Amino acid sequence: MFAIIQTIVTLNGGLTTSFYLNPYDVGAKLSSLFKGECYYIHAPAITTSEELCRSFRSDLTVKQALQMAKLANYSLVGVGEMSAETTLISTGYISLADVGILHRKGAVGNIVGQFFDIEGNIIDCDLHKRIVAFPIEELRQMKNVIGVAGGKDKTEAILGALHGKFIKVLITDEETATSIINLEKNRIINKGSSRRLE
To answer: Domain with 179 in it: what CATH number?
Structure first.
């Protein structure tokens, strides 16, 4: 969830006061490790209204942080899955009902709070109009976007992120990597079978 330029720039607004989930705390820790400075998006990750989101996005410090992120040599993002354990639910930003709606639209995962399907298409949903974060479609143009995610429950989410070209490098565990490869093989086989039936 961070872009590194000799400084650390958070790619989305704050999620929670928890050290492990809050980009502000993680950004501060990384900047301390790299002996650099950290620039934050001073806003909630998801606002309560589109109007409030536009207000935060028009703030000079938020615009500067998002602009700095575009210049990053490296970007580090997590890949969230569509389950009751996803960070956006555990922090109270979205509900299980929201997840159900997103599932029906084909969502398999999210990066900085923005959802996509297994083909890497960004989901068209009202929730995206309330998110204060770096646009994931712009990650496609950035170099060295590193996705960090693991666990078989994230297989579809990671595959969608790879298909969407939101990440260029993946850091994961062997079991998850095998699961991703097997899922993609099965999808290719199934597509081939469908074409033959036509």
So the answer is: 3.40.50.1360
